[in-house]
Amino acid sequence: MNGFLLLISLFSMFGCSSNESAAEPQPEKAQTYQLVNPNATAETKKLFNVLSELYGQKIISGVVANVDWNYRDAENVYKWTGRWPALNVFDFMNIHASKDVNPKGWLDYSDDTCVREWHEAGGIVGCMWHWQVLCNDGVNLTCSPGTKPGETSFDASQVYVDGTPENKLAIQQMDQVCGYLKKMQKAGIPVIWRPFHEAAGNTYEFDGGGAWFWWGAKGPEVYKQLWQFMYDYFVNKQGLNNLIWVWTAQTGDDVWYPGDEFVDIVGRDNYAALQYPLMKEFKLLQKTYPNKMITLAECGSGDEVKMSLLSRIWEQGSRWSWFMTWYDYDYNAGNSEEHKFANEAWWQDAFAQPYVISREQIKELLK
Q: What is the DSSP string of 187-237?
């Protein structure tokens, strides 16, 4: 009798230990995720709740616009598959050339017809900002920090200091962006907002690595203050309550994290996009930021590595909230094989999976 009990005890002990070691961390229950802005609009809360409900069970499909207001790459996907990506992300990269602030401008960000069309069709709207400032040559614009003529010495540490030239320029351009985002808020459009992305660059990936953009050039403490300055200005001073704030992690850069109270979702950009490294990164981010959903904020084929099929990425265990493929720099709508980041075969595989959410499906969920 005692021997039998001993066997049962040993079985229970080793069985429990085995299960604990084999268990993979799972996404938190949907109800544990909360928007950081308590005054978020009803539409923003609805979108965030849908993201929470889908997280870990489904993945939302997405593309980025070719810089300004357009959905050309989304149209490509529709031609290839007969389905629309659920998310289209627009970039404020060229606001300096917008006709509403520059009489010689060559585009008009104030005309957001494309954004409203996407929203009215049921799609999710995302925005990011490759924030360009004046180069050291005094003529051109760039995001890249450095001392060369084509780089910029723009000092991120002065942006949040009242009255400095950097502060005055930042306020002017943030006001411009806030104006566009306010139009969306007035139209009932929630926005997935991803500013100041990839701040650490490859600082922690190899000796000599550094920031890719001026907002990361002064290190993590300045960067966190910069993020918090924007959050305070957008939310508290400008009353923007339609934003879901996404912070983009790099490798080993948790000291750059702005803080749980300023971030809704944690993203990762990866252009190697092979299923095993992606799975490792997903699990690491999930462990590091257990109170946040994790998303694949940018992805596509690298220069030498073709991106794994979405089905393989998902089945390996990378349960990202959404994925966003980058646009094709050599844009050619007529030839899917020339698409550098995610071609026709990749998208056909993605939409063949029952867990990949299209615009048609997200529209029903957001009703």
A: TT--EEEE-STTTTTTTTTSTT---SSGGGTT-HHHHHHHHHHHHIIIIII
Torsion of CA 88, 93, 98, 103, to 10 degrees: -170
What is the DSSP pairing of strand 293-299 with strand 265-270?
A: parallel
Q: How far apart are CA 156 and CA 165, in angstroms?
A: 11
Give the separation between CA 271 and CA 287, rounded to whole angstroms. 22
- Own/partner pairs, 329-332, CB within 8 angstroms, 24+ separation: 331/66, 331/72
Q: Is 298 a catalytic residue?
A: yes
pLDDT band per the 50, 70, 90 thresholds, residue 13: very low
Write out the H or E segment, with its range, that includes residue 5: helix 2-22
Tell which residue, 255, 215, 190, has the closest CA to residue 37. 190
Alpha carbon distance 132, 177 (integer Å): 13
pLDDT tens, position by position, 309-352: 999 999 999 999 999 999 876 555 555 556 778 989 999 999 99
298, 315, 360, 364: the catalytic one is 298
Of residues 151, 166, 198, 281, which has the active-site annotation? 198
User: 189-214: per-residue pLDDT in tens?
Assistant: 999 999 999 999 999 988 899 999 99
| Active site annotation includes 338 | no
Rg (alpha carbons) of the chain, rounded to whole number: 22
CB 89 within 8 A of CB 324: yes
Q: Work out the percent of the chain whose per-residue pLDDT is above 90.
A: 81
Pairing of strands 356-357, 62-64: unpaired
Listed residue (92, 104, 55) closest to 285, CA to CA = 55
Sign, Cα dihedral of 301, 307, 309, 315: negative
Does pTM surpass 0.70?
Answer: yes
